[in-house]
Design goal:
Helices cover 17% and strands 31% of the residues. It is of the alpha+beta class. The protein has 2 domains: 70 residues, no CATH class; 202 residues, Fumarylacetoacetase-like, C-terminal domain (Fumarylacetoacetate hydrolase, domain 2, Alpha-Beta Complex), CATH 3.90.850. Strands 1, 2, 3, 4, 5, 6, 7, 8, 10, 11, 13 and 16 form a 12-stranded mixed sheet that branches. The chain has a 4-stranded antiparallel sheet with strand order 15-14-18-19, with no helix packed on it. Strands 12-9-17 form a 3-stranded antiparallel sheet, with no helix packed on it. The radius of gyration is 18 Å and the shape is globular.
Amino acid sequence: MKICRFDDNRLGLVKGEQVHDVTPVLAELGTFSYPLPRFDPFIANLEKLRASIESAAKDSRGVDLSRAKLLSPVANPGKIIAAPVNYTKHLQEALADKGIHHGNLINEIHKAGMFLKAASAVVGPGEGVKLIHTDRRNDHEVELAVVIGKRAKNVSAAEAPVHIAGYCIGLDMTIRGPEERSFRKSPDSYCVLGPWLVTPDEVPDTGALQLSITVNGQPRQDANTSDLIVKVAELVAWGSAFYTLHPGDVLLTGTPQGVGPVKPGDVMLAKIDRIGSMQVAVS
């Protein structure tokens, strides 16, 4: 199942090259009083709503995806946890390129740990990336994004898969410079999630996915998740050892070698096997 959000916060089921509006299903979530929950209610109830979504899609005329403005498939992520230097070749390029490390200490992931990226940075591919501090280098980083579906605290790697709601493509946009990592990666629009959420039954092996990105048609990053140093289930387990993971939380699994700068006017095209592709404009 591929679930998207589009246009004016509509909920859609993607079938082929069309999206079927299933927004009425959201009425089944009910209402919430203050204080609001710390999780994304739709993601938390996705499995319960699956039959309703499929039924609603049958009664909904499909709209060409090319006409839809795709938003982030997760509306309310509580937190975004990101894995730095989780590909050996990216670690090597980061150590070798001062334009990337700016004198910062670059440790391999087991020493560096993970970091938090502001949830306010999240946008969908149809919203695009708005660069700030364009006097400095702003880089693309394509990653497999994992969306948590069930509360997880101190789970093992073996237990991790049942806590995953699905996967999407993530762009961890980054301003290069001497400041702390989270600070440079959290401006508005610096976390693109999309084009939709793909449920785990459609991605049976997260350890064998080709991922890539081009900028204005020129290849930049092209690698496979088989090269991840810390695998998806291990990342979920590791994150749950430090934080309680809630439905809608997003885990960015790390970017491979080939990171590079973008500028206003550029167009990025990111792809991951079994998930799809998303075009993102830079302004």
